[in-house]
Amino acid sequence: MAEEDAQELARLAASEKPESNEEPMGPQVRNWLVENLKKAASGTWKMGVAVATDVVKEALLKYYGFK
User: Residue 27 contacts by C-beta under 8 Å, 6 or more apart in sequence?
Assistant: First the structure.
């Protein structure tokens, strides 16, 4: 994942609260993920869609202190 993508995700995560422990993404983060998974699918992120989704979810769980 490019640094600017990670920074944008961090900015969005800081601007909203998670919906729950099981769903650590608010609506803006979810929209960001949908848009940016195209980068995973095209190979830009050098990881597959499933891996990218897991990486982002794990990062958000840790960011919000759920893990």
Answer: 16
Written as six digits, the tokens of 17 are 């609260």
Does the pTM surpass 0.85? The reply is: no
- 37 contact partners, CB below 8 Å, separation of at least 6: 49, 52, 53
pLDDT in tens, 41-55: 888 888 888 888 888
Placement of tokens 């190979």 in the chain: 43
Tokens of residue 10, six digits: 């961090």
- Separation in Å, CA 49 to CA 15, 52, 58: 25, 5, 14
Answer yes or no: are the C-beta atoms of 17 and 5 closer than 8 Å: no
Among the listed residues 40, 18, 46, 21, the one whose alpha carbon sits nearest the alpha carbon of residue 30: 18
